[in-house]
Input
Amino acid sequence: MASRLPPNHRSSSDTEKRPDAPLPWWRSGWLWVAIGLLAVTFLAAVVTTLIAMDSEDPAVEIAPGDTPAHVRQANP
Output
């Protein structure tokens, strides 16, 4: 007796999930932890850059004839 199923038909044993089958790459939790950490780091870098570009650096007043602090520390 010939089978009436088409040649590309999957049997029920093919469609059942095997317990030892590996998960697809997008179902791995550690992948999303790594992607999340990279995304948070990138977002923090963008926010930090925007804050640095937006705020003005105040001028440092040095008394006339006085040497800057970084020069005094380097040459005691």
The chain has a mean pLDDT of 79. The chain has three helices and no strands.
